[in-house]
């Protein structure tokens, strides 16, 4: 899964070597088709690709503390997608309300007509291997610019409506929440007036997770939270190093969708820095427009949002492991100390299809 070669004709199959590509050509040529961009290539380039010898290197990887990230080898799916809290102060970050939510089965095609089978291919060939190996996975161009724009418009309207409140912590031990996290948030399920496109995003996230289920570690993912729509209003606001689920509340996978056009991290900051457990390297994820980030929610991935100097939008959904969520509820109901599960909120949504 590292330093892979990309088929120069269809741009949809990756190989570990030119020899491997030639060996696979007899089968691959039956489905290998030119992209519109490839049709405009010079004839000699087409001839090379058509013989099974054509290939190109994937886009250069982003630096992760001097190391390549797991997004380097990620094969794109048929839609053209590029695949790529424990707080230091002792505070535990609140996930806000944690209603279990039924995963929607109403998924529209991706930016270039992606189907359910395309989504499944993306999951099986890249997302599952990447998360299981690295604990982190990045998918760029997740929905396409048009759908991303429509989601961004809804988020901005929500922000202007005054529905956002300051992000809170489960426990406050004298410190102000703003000293730890500077975001403003609201929770939506995608069915509220003016949130249809956010609902579409959640449906597409659900579709990916449904294809992942049973393949991510030993988890049995059966539900999720509502979507937390967050805004860092600039002025150096961020979120100190923390873990989303330090105490077994049921969350196993964090999914974050970014909505920041033409984001320049060198000037605007706002990078999500992840410190994978047991590794010397850290991973810097820029909050780029139409980028989806997935990572383990537990202590394996402490992370921080570095100071943002421009308005920064993101939408986060957490997915539940069935067994851990049940244990967390039982501990909460029996009054066991240290359990931070908010059960007095609207019922959680399950993963079973409508």
UniProtKB/TrEMBL annotation:
Enzymatic class: oxidoreductase
Presence of keyword Isomerase: no
Catalytic activity: L-prolyl-[hypoxia-inducible factor alpha subunit] + 2-oxoglutarate + O2 = trans-4-hydroxy-L-prolyl-[hypoxia-inducible factor alpha subunit] + succinate + CO2
A GO BP entry: cellular response to hypoxia
InterPro entries assigned: HIF_prolyl_hydroxylases, Oxoglu/Fe-dep_dioxygenase_dom, Pro_4_hyd_alph, Pro_4_hyd_alph_FE2OG_OXY, Znf_MYND
GO MF entry, a single one: hypoxia-inducible factor-proline dioxygenase activity
Cofactor(s) needed for function: L-ascorbate
Compartments where found: Nucleus
Name of this protein: hypoxia-inducible factor-proline dioxygenase
Gene source species: Callorhinchus milii (Ghost shark)
Gene: egln1a
């Amino acid at each position: 899964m590292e330093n892979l070669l990309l088929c120069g004709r269809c741009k949809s199959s990756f190989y570990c070597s030119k020899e491997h590509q030639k060996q696979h050509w007899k089968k691959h040529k039956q489905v290998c088709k030119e992209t519109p961009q490839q049709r405009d290539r010079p004839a000699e380039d087409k001839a090379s690709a058509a013989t099974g010898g054509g290939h190109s290197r994937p886009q250069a990887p982003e630096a992760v503390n001097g190391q390549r990230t797991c997004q380097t080898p990620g094969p794109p799916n048929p839609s053209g997608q590029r695949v790529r809290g424990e707080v230091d102060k002792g505070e535990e970050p609140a996930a806000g309300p944690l209603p279990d939510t039924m995963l929607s089965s109403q998924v529209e095609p991706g930016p270039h007509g992606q189907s359910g089978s395309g989504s499944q291919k993306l999951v099986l060939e890249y997302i599952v291997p990447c998360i299981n190996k690295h604990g982190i996975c990045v998918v760029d161009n997740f929905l396409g610019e048009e759908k991303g724009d429509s989601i961004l418009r809804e988020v901005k309207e929500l922000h202007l409506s005054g529905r956002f409140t300051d992000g809170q912590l489960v426990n406050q031990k004298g410190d102000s929440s703003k000293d730890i996290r500077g975001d403003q948030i609201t929770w939506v399920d995608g069915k509220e007036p003016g949130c249809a496109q956010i609902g579409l995003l959640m449906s597409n996230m659900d579709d990916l997770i449904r294809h992942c289920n049973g393949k991510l570690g030993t988890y049995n993912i059966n539900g999720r939270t509502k979507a937390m729509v967050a805004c860092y209003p600039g002025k150096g606001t961020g979120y100190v190093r923390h873990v989303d689920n330090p105490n077994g509340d049921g969350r196993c996978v964090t999914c974050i969708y970014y909505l920041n056009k033409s984001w320049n991290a060198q000037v605007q900051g706002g990078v999500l820095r992840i410190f994978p457990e047991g590794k010397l390297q850290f991973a810097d994820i820029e909050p780029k427009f139409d980028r989806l980030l997935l990572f383990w929610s537990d202590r394996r991935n402490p992370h921080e949002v570095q100071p943002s100097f421009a308005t920064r939008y993101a939408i986060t959904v957490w997915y539940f492991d069935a067994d851990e969520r049940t244990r967390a509820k039982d501990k909460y109901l029996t009054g066991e100390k240290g359990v931070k599960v908010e059960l007095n909120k609207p019922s959680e949504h399950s993963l079973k299809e409508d």
